[in-house]
Design a protein that fits this description.
The protein is 82% helix and 0% strand. With 164 residues, the chain is mainly alpha-helical.
Length: 164
């Protein structure tokens, strides 16, 4: 049995991502760029290890359930999230935003980032059908990714084989 419960860890990560995204949107609506950027950095640190274990171990292990087309769709969702996160970082990194930028960033989060944790949470029910050995590999990958502490945007630019 894995040292950690990978299904519970995935669920917990998705809840954290949801909450961070909602908090980022709230800060953006208030045009509190400093708070929004701080929260984005937390999300970046959480997202790197999470996307990494999903792409390197979890998605391939589950491909037999949902097939190649859906597997590619999940990778494309990651591409969209990465591109959107880069846009968020670039805009928030300026230190201030206009009302128009605020509205654009909210829509960017709503349309390009928030749908992914919602979609991906559904995979938790398929994880229950994985073998103990597959779950152990996912658990090990979760732990290794967290230990490596490579943020999402750094991972996407330096380690990830697929470019967004």
């Amino acid at each position: 049995m894995p040292r950690i419960d990978p299904i519970a860890e995935v669920k917990e990560d998705h809840g954290k991502v949801r909450d961070l995204l909602l908090d980022i949107m709230s800060a953006i609506k208030r045009r509190d760029v400093t708070k929004a950027f701080e929260l984005l950095l937390i999300l970046d640190k959480l997202g790197g290890p999470h996307f990494r274990f999903e792409e390197e171990v979890m998605y391939p292990a589950m491909k037999r359930f949902y097939g190649e087309d859906y597997y590619l769709r999940l990778l494309e969702e990651h591409d969209r999230v990465i591109r959107a996160a880069k846009q968020l970082a670039e805009t928030l990194g300026k230190g201030s935003i206009t009302e128009e930028e605020s509205e654009r960033l909210i829509k960017l989060i709503q349309n390009e980032i928030l749908p992914h944790p919602i979609t991906c949470s559904g995979l938790e029910i398929l994880m229950e059908k994985l073998s103990p050995e597959e779950l152990e590999k996912i658990a090990e990958s979760i732990e290794a990714g967290r230990e490596a502490e490579v943020p999402l945007l750094e991972w996407a630019d330096t380690i990830r084989a697929r470019k967004a």
